């Protein structure tokens, strides 16, 4: 179930150019790296519990229903927009030109730390590589969140 | 002696006569693709790829002349939502033309008309004696203004023999929760979705611009129906419901993820005017063979639902997504298939983290207009490998079914765009 069979998805995902042109990650201080892996490990648990049944074990989603989380502009892009998807849910939105018809419910019952962890996990899994999201950043978005 | 001679003269004449009749009624030879196009079939059956559409074909229909009309989920690059294919050789076909500037699912031929649906409307096109659409740009809009809130948007259609068209209007909700798919959210009292969706509506096939006020809510309490067909044997509508999702996600204290993968059944219903199949107030448990009260409405996995709701005619494993239903009335397949039902199961997603299931065409034996005996997998391996079934990353996903004039069976795949044809070749 954990097998990452991504190939068939890549065919219909339009890969944002920005994602492909990211520079190679610079070596980080050991402390930051440990923080990242701890957050990813916690985030994986949250993902398995709340996200996997729709977005699937490989993050590939379900065609026409539940969006993939692999190198999409939503996942790799603006942190605030991504955080709001978890806080408010999402519906009636095309993602990178593809329609997805199922409703994503709000996950505002998750703590700031849980949201930070699961988003950090998603942004560093399934072939994604994007900066971590911190609990403080989630807190700030939540404080000004308008639905 | 003289009488004997006559008999000897007549015999060859009769033979020649029947042979020429045979030649006239024998369809063009169907040639199976290598390895039956990757499909696994019962002994004596073969399969070929009719065409690759490069689009997402949903339902399809075949005219008496053998023209193939295919409804695309979304318009192709040329802006066409319907493709017309004509036979070439060996059972294959090629795209001749395209029209209809709307995506959708429904595609049905009846009595000289082609019926097609978008996600809000139903159109019909007059066909000429060659089975060609004469007015591709000016169809009659027979039904309009049907609700489309993206979820369960397919307006699948079929017709009876009395001039009525039946349209699925799927519920724009999973289980009519106050907050759709939200963990722990309870059901809306007197589910308001059912006013305009969550059922099958009946309209006239030959009237223009009908909407809710002109139609009849024929059957309610059906969450979403993509596959439906009119049973000619007992003159009744049969539908395949997509059962509700996410029992575990929404009520984790009542259902494990394993139970959630196996509940509820995907149900076949034989419906009559005024029937209520009970969504969102119940789901069908295939292991207990019982209608269970939905947890959104006070259920706990043990309480049974109100008995006023109709029972399914047959039940199938959960979440396999029946997208096509076809009663087989042809003469090509062996006798046991006659009047039985083929069901195209698009394949599951909502079994995760358990292995996915489906991605095949099932045969359900029927007797006297009722399911008779256990269903069996008829055409398998659309996914490509067992691993691709388990992961849900299927190569092909069966969706629409249609019967050709020669009795062969067409199957669409709305993932890669392949159109298959399955035939019987054992003499």
TrEMBL record, chain A:
Residues 38-126 form the Cytochrome c domain. Residues 1-19 form the signal peptide. Pfam families: Cytochrom_C. One of its GO terms (molecular function) is metal ion binding. It comes from the Bacteria. Keywords: Heme, Iron, Metal-binding, Signal. PANTHER family: BLL4482 PROTEIN, BLL4482 PROTEIN-RELATED. This is Cytochrome C. It comes from Hymenobacter crusticola.
UniProtKB/TrEMBL annotation, chain B:
Keywords: Signal. Residues 1-23 form the signal peptide. Pfam families: TrAA12 (PF22807). SUPFAM superfamilies: Soluble quinoprotein glucose dehydrogenase (SSF50952). It comes from the Bacteria. The keyword Cell division does not apply. Residues 40-422 form the Pyrroloquinoline quinone-dependent pyranose dehydrogenase beta-propeller domain. PANTHER family: LARGE, MULTIFUNCTIONAL SECRETED PROTEIN, LARGE, MULTIFUNCTIONAL SECRETED PROTEIN-RELATED. This is Sorbosone dehydrogenase. It comes from Hymenobacter crusticola.
């Amino acid at each position: 179930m954990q097998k990452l069979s991504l190939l068939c998805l890549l065919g219909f995902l339009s890969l944002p150019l920005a994602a492909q042109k990211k520079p190679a990650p610079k070596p980080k201080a050991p402390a930051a790296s440990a923080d990242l892996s701890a957050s990813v490990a916690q985030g994986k648990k949250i993902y398995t519990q709340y996200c996997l049944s729709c977005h699937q074990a490989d993050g590939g989603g379900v065609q026409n229903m539940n969006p993939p989380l692999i190198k999409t502009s939503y996942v790799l892009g603006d942190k605030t927009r991504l955080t709001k998807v978890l806080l408010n849910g999402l519906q009636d939105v095309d993602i990178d030109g593809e329609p997805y018809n199922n409703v994503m419910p709000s996950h505002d019952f998750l703590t700031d730390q849980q949201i930070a962890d699961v988003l950090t996990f998603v942004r560093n899994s399934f072939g994604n590589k994007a900066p971590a999201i911190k609990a403080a950043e989630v807190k700030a978005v939540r404080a000004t969140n308008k639905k | 002696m003289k009488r004997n001679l006559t008999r000897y003269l007549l015999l060859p004449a009769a033979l020649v006569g029947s042979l020429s009749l045979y030649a006239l009624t024998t369809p063009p030879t169907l040639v199976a693709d290598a390895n039956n196009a990757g499909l696994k079939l019962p002994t004596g059956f073969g399969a070929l790829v009719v065409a690759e559409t490069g689009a997402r074909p949903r339902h399809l229909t075949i005219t008496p002349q053998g023209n193939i009309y295919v409804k695309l989920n979304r318009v192709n690059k040329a802006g066409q939502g319907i493709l017309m294919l004509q036979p070439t050789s060996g059972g294959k076909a090629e795209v001749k033309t395209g029209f209809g500037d709307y995506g959708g699912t429904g595609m049905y031929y009846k009595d000289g008309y082609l019926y097609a649906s978008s996600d809000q409307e139903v159109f019909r096109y007059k066909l000429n004696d060659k089975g060609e659409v004469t007015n591709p740009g000016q169809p009659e809009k027979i039904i309009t203004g049907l609700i489309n809130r993206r979820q369960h948007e397919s307006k699948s259609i079929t017709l009876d023999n009395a001039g009525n068209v039946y349209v699925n209007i799927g519920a724009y909700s999973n289980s009519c929760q106050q907050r759709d798919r939200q963990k722990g959210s309870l059901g809306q009292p007197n589910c308001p979705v059912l006013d305009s969706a969550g059922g099958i509506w009946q309209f006239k096939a030959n009237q223009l611009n009908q909407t809710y006020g002109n139609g009849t809510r024929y059957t309610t309490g059906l969450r979403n129906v993509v596959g439906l067909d009119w049973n000619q044997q007992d003159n009744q509508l049969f539908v395949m419901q997509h059962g509700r999702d996410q029992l575990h996600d929404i009520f984790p204290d009542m259902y494990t993820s394993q139970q959630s993968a196996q509940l509820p059944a995907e149900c076949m219903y034989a419906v009559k005017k005024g029937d209520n199949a009970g969504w969102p107030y119940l789901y069908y448990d295939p292991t207990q063979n019982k209608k269970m009260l939905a947890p959104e409405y006070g259920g706990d996995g043990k309480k049974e639902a109100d008995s006023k709701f109709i029972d399914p005619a047959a039940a199938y494993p959960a979440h396999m997504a029946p997208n096509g239903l076809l009663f087989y009335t042809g003469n090509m397949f062996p006798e046991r298939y006659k009047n039985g039902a083929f069901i195209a199961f698009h394949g599951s997603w909502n079994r995760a983290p358990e292995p996915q299931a489906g991605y095949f065409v099932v045969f359900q034996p029927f007797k006297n207009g009722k399911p008779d005996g256990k269903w069996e997998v008829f055409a398998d391996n659309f996914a490509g490998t067992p691993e691709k079934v388990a992961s849900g990353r299927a190569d092909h996903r069966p969706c629409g079914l249609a019967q050709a004039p020669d009795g062969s069976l067409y199957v669409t795949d709305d993932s890669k765009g392949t159109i298959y044809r399955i035939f019987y070749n054992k003499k």
